[in-house]
Every structure is written in C-alpha cells, then in structure tokens.
Design a protein that fits this description.
Chain lengths: 447, 172
Amino acid sequence: MKIIIDDRAVECEEGALLIEVMLKNSIEIPHFCYQEDLGADGNCRMCMVDIKGMKRPQIACNTFVSENLEVSTISENITEVKRSILELELLNHPVDCAICDQAGECKLQDYYMDFGLYDSHLTTAKTKKGKHIDLGSNVMLDQERCVLCTRCTRFTSNITKTGELGIIGRGDSARVGIAPGRELNNPYAMNVVELCPVGALTSKDFRFKQRVWFLDSTKSICHGCSRGCNIHVDYNETKYSDEKIHRFRARRNNKINQSFLCDYGRLSYTELNESFNGEVSHVKDLADLLKEDKKLALVSPSMSLQQLQAIKSFCKNNAIELFSLAYIDDSFGDEWLRTNDMSANFAGVKELEINYDEGKFNSSLQDAHVVINFDHKYLKNMDLNNKRVVHFATSHVDSDYELIFAIADFAHDSGTIINCDGIRQDFYATKYESSNPRLVDILEELR
Amino acid sequence: MGIKVVHRHGNTFKEKMYISAIFSGMKTTLKHFSANLKDASQIPTVCYPDEKPTDITPRYRGVHRLTHRKEDDSIACVACFMCATACPSNCIDIVAIAREDGVDEKMPKVFNIDLLECIFCGYCVEACPCDAIRMDSGIYSVVGETREEFVYDKEKLLSIKGISKEEYSLAK
C-alpha cells in the first residue's frame, strides 16, 4: 500500500499507525506520549499532521493509514499548531536545563529548537510542584519538568503490572506521583528514566555524574544473564579523568528486549570500572608451567565465542582438560527478561562442546596439579592450597595465586555471544584501548 | 568570477628614489621627538613593570573569578558545564555534586581552571547562564614557580574580588 507524506510516496502495510510508518521511514515527527512498546495514548498532541480532506489537523499516533492518504508535516499551518502545543506543554516548565541531567537528550529542548523559539506569553507566576523527589529504585522525580505523557505510568501499569505511578490532580496541578508511603519497587523500575522524554524522571545512579554530550556510545550486549539484552555502553575519557563507563542504556531489539533492561543489568556496568591494580605475571612463566602434567582449566561461560574457541584450541594443544560451569541463580529469573542462567554465553559453551558436567569437574579438580581459571567466578578467591593456580581475570583478584594475568573485559574486547534463545549477537569494544591485553592475544603469544 | 586590476604603487621615478619618502617619515619622527622633549609627561608608553597600567576596565579579560549569590553569599555556579563545553582549550575541570542546603540542586565539588592552558578568550563567561564565572578581576599578571600554582581551584576563584560595581551574580 502506498501513502503520500510531504509529496513523497511511502510504502506501508495496511492497518499500520501513521506515526509508525513515519518513524520507520525516518520522517521527523515530534511526539512525547507515543512509544513503540507502550503504544499510542494520544494525550500530548505533538504529532499533529495535516491530512488532505480533513478539516482540522489530526494526531499521527491515532490515524491508521489508508490507500493514497496524503499527509503534510511541514506546512506553515501545521508548524504553527505544533508551536502552540509545545508552548502549552512548556508553560509551567521551570527551564532549569542547567541542573537537569536530561539536557542534551531532552525532547523538549529538541522540539523548542525545531518549532518553538517563541517568547513566553505567561504573565502570572509558574505553578510550583515537587522537585527532586526520591521515588526509590534509583529514580528521581521532578514534577515541574513533566509533560504528562504518561509513559511512566503506562509502563508500571501495563508492562510491569505493579502500578506504582499515577497522575494526581487536574489541569495545571496535574502531576506524576506515587501513593503516600509507597515507593517505586520493581526489578525493571529504572526503565521509566529512559522512557521519560524530558527530565522529569532521572536516574539517581547517573545523577550529576556527566553531561550527556561528553559521552561516547558503543553497541554492546548485557552480560548480566543469558537473555542477551541489547545495550548502549556510554563512557568517556576526559583530559582530567581516566576512561570510565557511566551507564548502560537499552538498545532496541524487537526480538529480545524491545527497548527495556532490568535494573540488575543496567547497573552491572560498575563491574567494568573495577580496575585490575595488581602486578601481572610473565607469559614465559606460564609456558614453563604448561610442561607439568594433570592440568585442568575452567572457563567462564560469559566469555565470547572467539575467546572460547581460542581457549579450546589452547587446551587441546597443551593437553589440558577443559570445563565450563554455568552461573545458575534460581531466585533471579522471571517470566520476562531475567533468566536463572546468569552466564552470558552458556549456549556458546554447549555449541563448542565444552564439558559442563559439574561432577566430572569436581573429581578432576581433586586430581589436578595445575588449575587454569579463565575468569570463572566459582574459582575466584577459592582456596586451592596444594595446586598451582593460573588466573586470568578481568577485575582485581585478592588471592595470592602463582600466576595472575589481567585481561580485557567485554567492553574492551569485541566478540559474539549466543543468548538463551539461540540468537547470535555481536558486541563491540569501546574506542579507548584497554590497559589489559585481550585474552586471545595472550593465548596467541603462547603458541 | 571577475578580475579586479589593482594599480601597483612605487613605479614612478620619484618613488623609486626613496628620498622624499625618507624625509616625510623623518618629519613625523622629529615632530614627536621634539614634542616629547618639551613635555615628557605626555608620552603614552608605560614602563611596565615599574609602572602599572591605569586603564584596566571591568571589560578587560583578566583572571577568572566565581561569583557569589546575593541572598546567602554561597557559590552561584550550578555546575552545568556550559563553560567547560564552550572552552576551546579545555582548561576547565568540573566535578558536580548534589547540593544539600536547599538553595539549589547542583553545585561543583571541584572547579579548576588551568591558567597555563587558558587562552583568555572569555567564551566561558559568554556561555555561563548563571553569571557565575566572570573575568572582571582586573588581574592581568599571574606569577608562580610551579605549574600547580597556576591551577586555580574553587576556593581560590571564589575569593577573587571583581573591579566592576556588580559584586554578586546577576542571574535570576
């Protein structure tokens, strides 16, 4: 089916929403309340378009496409309509961009620069509402900045079905709020921060840490569990501070996580900032140690396929018995994104036919003289007295092992992992070089 | 594109002799020389550093200072990073924290300006939405023995007084 948007023919499916078609074809359409996963609500009125044959402008998020629909988004009339609606949305806005974390990725700022640029007509004082209210679960609410798009309330009532947030009051005093004595408390609560198109809901974890325009972003995959949610890793290195990862943001993938992330995964970036600050061993010493017999290796099931493959051939060449054990936490999983298997690539371990029999591993561990641990959490800091231990670690190790090698973590070493549903996904390294070498390079050196 | 033909000077015989140009130049020199000889107080040259300049106005871009709020004399800066963003030499280092005293939500924990990196362009002053950073201190000379002495921190910048009549931040 064909429709015409701004004198341009656009191919679309019958029964689709006009706003979906526009967003899919990268046609700019301002919107607050429409969100791909939450659907349309039709309350913000920002997505007004002129439709041929209709007397008044219509909202694109409540218009279904029909054959030869003629739509205009850039006429003088429609720009004036958008400007007036934006002025209404911004009427009581405190314009405190200087202290607002959303500045730089705020829809109000973008739309004001696109169609606003007016002087306020308000002559009376602005309505005062609650500011910096701690809702719990790392979410801060500023009611004055809110445009009442209800994305957050629709998320808590339709998606998590916990219903903590609601709109209280009418007219000028309408505000997002929470019932007295209750707090935002669900494992996906921080998604409302990302859903909020303005600075009304901000993250307490990211609060005042960085201005967003200083951040670089890299496409990655969350390594928190086997779901493999798609993320953006936001990081930077400045003249006065070392490289640091500041946050994870959800990246749209309709097959896996839509545009959501669980709080555990979202906050798991802190592990990547734990630097390795001990002394690392020489690769030559490891080569000497490999001459021993009865060697055993345990590899983390969160390592990428490339790393697993390199380890597998390394173990084969040096007659090392290789195991991998999944990280299972029965209390973690739920019906939505979180899975009990907290290893990022256990499906990859199975695909490469690495032994994951726990009983076999324990009996082999008893006999082994040399234990090589490729960043597996179970063996980290475990007492292995009478054995010679080699440890490859992405973060700091407290125990005093014979040989310790620091290796680059998943933010600094690209690769491929397979999620619990068998979907193969790539993740990429940040643009700054890691201080630790990549595992595959160390193994290459040993050949 | 059209070509504009420019007449080249210095090709006549009189100009090629140079004599007349030398005399007209010497005439100007001698005129000033005799005027200065008669009245030395009118010489516009300042014997810096024995003599200090007397014409430094508030518009002069001197060393930066951080202003205070009129209500409670606290720091006016809200750590919005506009100055650091505008700075072409990247000499401003800010670390923001939440402000707990209820006056505002945000303030700088660290605010360092490296005066050795600074090119005194004044973009930070232009960018500031809170009138929190100014260059109206009138200080045109900074002396130090180590590089660290040229990194002015928050306390130092707050302690510098301005020479303009507005002492406090004018931001509303």
